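Why does residue order matter? Because the sequence determines the fold. Keep that principle in mind as you read this record.
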Amino acid sequence: MAEFTRPKVPEGKTEYVTTTQKEITPGKFFVGYDTTWKTFQKEVPYSTPKKP
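Structure:
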């Protein structure tokens, strides 16, 4: 049986997400991509509202 090979895929970049191809792990079947998300919401520390 021949060894499985797949073509190299370039890194995918958009404004909020980056997708990279993983290396082949023998004996495992999975989709071979890592997805890294960038934050697009700002977190503001909570402060108690003013009393009327």
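The radius of gyration is 21 Å.
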